[in-house]
Please model this.
Amino acid sequence: MGLSLPVLNHRFASSEEFECEDPEEYSLLPFRFISLDERRYVATNLAGEYIVLPKLELRAFVQHEMLPSSPFFDELKSKHFLLSRDSTVAIDLLSVKYRTKQSLLANFTGLFMFVVSLRCDHSCPYCQVSRQSEDRHAYDMTREHADRAIDFMFQSPSPVLKVEFQGGEPLLNFDLIRHVVVAVESRNVSESRDVQFVIATNLAYLSDETLQFCADHSILISTSLDGPRDLHNRNRPRPGADSYERAVLGIQRAKSFLGHDHVSALMTTTEASLSRARDIVDEYVLQGFGSIFLRPMSPFGFAVKTGMVRRYDVTEWLTFYREALAYVIDLNRRGVAFREEYASLLLRKMLTPYPTGYVDLQSPAGIGIGGIVFNYDGDIYASDEARMLAETGDRTFRLGSLVTDSFQTVMFSDHLLETLSQTMTEGMPMCSDCGFQPYCGSDPVHHHATQGDVVGFKPASDFCQRNMAILRHLVQLLEDDPSAAAILRSWI
Amino acid sequence: MQSTPQQFVDVTFDSAAYSITAIQKAAYRFGNLCYIRIETTIDGRVSVQLTPKATVTSPESLAGDLRNEVLDQHLREVVAEETGRVRDLILAQAFSAVSLIDAIGESGDAVDDPLGIRAQQTFADRGPIST
Model:
């Protein structure tokens, strides 16, 4: 109808009246930037908030030539990239957000991996830990070492302690797992920490007794599932060639006994996996998992000895990752609630001020101060990868021994502190001014293993190339694909 | 720019427009693609010589990519120079022991009323009521 309301017409000025063409003085706040593509930069502030700008706009912004009428001015202000006369809270807010991001550092080490046995029934050619055959009990952790490890662990000030049983196949030394769990819980009566137990197992030896114990002590299960049966069994041979069948049966039993959310799975990408992205994701959906953690093969242990790690390069793995991620997003569009875990970690860093606690992607590096490994022989390593290196003769990241060294000598050793200091992304070439620095992390063990240098030459680093590519891909999805963006945001 | 087929690519920069640090940082990023040589010329310009490695399939784009990267490094220097002190302030404030938010107000007990913000209400027929 042609009804006009003269009162309303005169109440508000036209929108043009509110557009200010006058230059507004502004100061820059600290930020980093990197090319997103040919046309655009992605810029990040100290707290990790990001903005995508056309390249010409960023250059104008830096040169103080951006007008308030620019479509990017208000976003730059609200995300603390500039200070103007009418907004003074940016410094306070940035400080609070930055402190929030770094807040887990003060807790110190929270993840403690107990390698209760190096024995294993599987013979996976990509095995990173150089497992031993089942009958070699010399490769089991002793109670004496386990008790010393528990004492060591409780010297960490962290209010949250995660005890992760690793191997080999840890269920082959279940008696020791039982001993450690009971001892930790008994000690924790006076310590009052938030303790969580996890067993990383291939599930081939999952007895009812084990399940009952896990249920009684709220122990989480983490297993390996590389994909459908043919792919999984090809990657993970064992006597009887039934790794998949045992894993799937174990997953189903553990989920029904312990609860759906008490069982998780990881996959390792082999050359055979590269063409099976959709099949692998479908297998995870079939087994009732709500997420998958897509990870490349690590350059340690048998993966290096057998040459498996060299059978594909990072570019090929990224093609696999993008295909798998696109398929996961497509599943979400069709109503299937499913996440990719590595993307979820990065999105949490990009879209929230909260830390993730993921030790493999933090600065300073998570070695020692995020997680630590007690090996079956009583040796202490700075990370699981450090332990894997040692099994192939390189003990660079061995921090000491439970038998001879104290918490202080291990955790405050010059070797550990110097490595942490030298490899902070805030100070390393290329990392220090990288636009993705707030989201990335330091991996000195990886760079030592692949380049012979803990700092690493980032132009040749597959770690750097992989993370940059995934981050660019996520930012492009968030910027250019609204439906994918909505799905990604639901994962944090 | 000089280019000899299958040999080096030579790019020069005006040292009045770009710092040597910006040029070095930019060139560093090409270290996996090229062998790099940086020299100052007799007329005060900075010469960067890139010798592509065998794996480089499109050496003709190297000069343009390097120029863009030098510009980016220059912009980073501009930002760092302008924001260096406020960055230190933000970090110092982030790790200071003083709460940036009202610590008393956040943790105070409503009954104790540490900030004295309890309101007084007066009703005409009942007199003052403390809430």
About this structure: The radius of gyration of chain B is 31 Å. The first helix of chain B runs from residue 20 to 28.
